[in-house]
Specification:
single chain, about 170 residues, mainly alpha, about 95% helix, rod-shaped
Amino acid sequence: QSRLATVQRELDKALENYDVTLNDLVEVQENIVNEQIKLGKIKNEIIEVSDELLETQKQLLGADEKLQEQAVSLYINGVMSPTTALFIELDELSNFLVALGYASTVVDSAYAIVEQLNALENLASSQTEFLTQREDERVEIVSNLQNEEEKKNEISIEAEEYAEDIEEKKEAVE
């Protein structure tokens, strides 16, 4: 009776261990699924922001070209400085003022382009930073997935050992 009770307790313990490992296995499996979902989301975000960054870089190039055109336009039209206006005869003054008005329009336009360039550069910078963070997260998730897969394998082996143990204990009880 005493030996039977001991073997029965060992069987109960083996069954309990087996249940625990099965629960662990389920938990690890859930972790793997959650990590894979996170990985998918991050990959989509990386693709999306990479496309946005490419678009931002195209806009930067366009704005840069516009700025160069404005500079060339100012240079080609040779707008005079206000000090030269002092030496202009009165009938030419209106022409000068028209040119000056044109120059201020070109300069305002150039300022607007410079502001756009700055905004685009800031956007590109934040997009690049975002991509770097997401890439770091992606690497971490892949690492987590590998760890979870290793755990899953270990737990599966452990569960098999407990199953064998249970069979032995059952035979002993019988």
